[in-house]
């Protein structure tokens, strides 16, 4: 992260620590501002590969709460919600306009009935749009927080790292589960 940007914060706030995870291997070195968009696209590509594997089922296996298909839908929707949150903090982007699929992310969506190939397509777009936006952010953008968020440490940088870890963690679990079938 850019420590110079943080030190300019008028609130002098402390940033929250980057997640370091022994389970999925996600570390703070993956969260550099100049590579973070690339990392998001790599994880999205990993999910797309899994979803495009022939015979992807909506069946839940092992201790996982969700099937691979359901997890893929969840990752897609996390990306869409993240993009909406970026809009809320930074204003609407002209670089990455809101996706139409983003209008339908309520929890009533029945993930297990979705079609894996289509989810893979949507996931690619859902991650690609915010990735393009992240790649264009300034140092000050990374340090901004949402006016309606209760904790000023919830900056764009923190929320992005948090999203990436969620996606990486779910991906590591899905790869492990699919290799055991
Ligand atoms: Zn993890």
Strand proportion, as a percent range, falls in under 5%
Query: Total helix count?
Result: 6
How large, in whole angstroms, is the Cα Rg? 17 Å
- The sequence of SSEs as H and E is HHHHHH
Bound molecules: zinc ion
CATH C-level label: Mainly Alpha
Strand count, sense and closure of the main sheet? none
User: How helix-rich are the residues, as a percent range?
Assistant: 40-55%
CATH architecture: Up-down Bundle
Which geometry do the CA atoms define? globular
Give the termini distance in whole angstroms.
Answer: 39 Å
How many beta-strand runs? Answer: 0
CATH superfamily: dinb family like domain
Instruction: Report the mean per-residue pLDDT as an integer.
Output: 78
Report the uncertain regions: 1-16, 100-108
Q: State the domain count.
A: 1
Give me the secondary-structure category: mainly alpha
CATH topology: Four Helix Bundle (Hemerythrin (Met), subunit A)
């Amino acid at each position: 992260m850019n420590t110079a940007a943080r030190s300019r914060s008028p609130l002098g706030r402390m940033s929250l620590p980057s997640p370091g995870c022994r389970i999925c291997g996600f570390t703070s070195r993956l969260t550099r501002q100049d590579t973070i968009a690339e990392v998001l696209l790599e994880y999205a590509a990993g999910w797309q590969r899994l979803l495009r594997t022939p015979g992807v089922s909506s069946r839940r296996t092992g201790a996982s709460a969700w099937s691979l298909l359901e997890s893929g839908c969840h990752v897609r929707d996390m990306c869409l919600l993240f993009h909406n949150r970026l809009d809320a903090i930074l204003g609407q982007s002209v670089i990455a306009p809101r996706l139409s699929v983003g209008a339908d992310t309520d929890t009533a969506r029945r993930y297990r009935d979705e079609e894996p190939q289509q989810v893979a397509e949507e996931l690619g777009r859902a991650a690609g749009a915010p990735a393009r936006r992240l790649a264009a952010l300034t140092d000050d953008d990374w340090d901004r927080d949402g006016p309606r968020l209760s904790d000023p440490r919830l900056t764009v940088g923190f929320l992005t790292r948090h999203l990436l870890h969620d996606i990486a963690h779910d991906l590591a679990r899905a790869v492990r589960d699919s290799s055991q079938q």
